[in-house]
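User: Predict the structure for this protein chain, please.
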Amino acid sequence: MTLLQLKYIVKIVECGSMNEASHELYVSQPALSSSVKELENELGIEIFTRSSQGIALTVDGAEFLTYARQVLDQSALLEERYKNAKPRKQLCRVSTQHYMFAVEAFVEMINSTKSDEYEFTIRETRTRDIINQVANMQSEVGIIYLSDFNKDVIGKLLREKHLEFHPLFRAGLHVVLSRNNPLAMKKKITMKDLEPYPFIQYEQGDEGSFYFAEEAVWPEYSPKQINVTDRATILNFIVGLNGYTVCTGIDNEDLNTEKIVTVPLDSDESMLLGWITNERAKISAAAGLYLDKLKSVVADHGYNIIE
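Assistant: Here is the predicted structure, written as structure tokens:
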């Protein structure tokens, strides 16, 4: 079944005869009749009754005509949307772990967009959801990190889902603390130092595991542990409960306050931050602009971009 055949049926009904329809469609009557017959045979129904007085719709034909017109209406909407000379609405969807630099770059991308219409989406969400959203093309770009601990498991999952990881920058680990915490004045903190304080981490759901954690290291045993889902909550808990979390240490407006400080963690581990894309899809111009802004923002924070 083709759109052309549906157009033939509608035109025949409008004209009331096969002969007149063939003239308006600029197709021979035998070719038109043959196309209709092929469609009837394919569907197993009779669309028209034919007699010496002409043709008429059957009951099945009348029902089919209703559906045919709906399909053609939708086809016309598609053509109007994508063949219109008006510039298309800019689209960009990003899924990311909880990084302020990713949001900062998103803001700069929007401010640089030269379009009267756009629809942009950014999701701060769980690691597995980021991977699935890029795999299902719900997002064009995903922001995650790899470490010596998780790279084999995450890498295998990315390959299975036909995703590519593009390194952006490497960061040493830092501890995020309240400025009132006694450890805030130290030049470097050990995991032993952190034992008395609540450990706060991003929740990864029932299917989560240490391999999907946003924190590259965590205490071997923490009697006080809090799981959260958003960045604002984790910062409030760090201040209100004197807790801590582990992150890249990249400075941003959330951390550059009188209440929060980042201190290097005494660890040989590091985080390789990067973005993932679907190897089966070509990213949009808006997504390309976002990646340019992402590199610019990270470089402005003093990190070396991996080209």
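The first strand starts at residue 48 and ends at 51.
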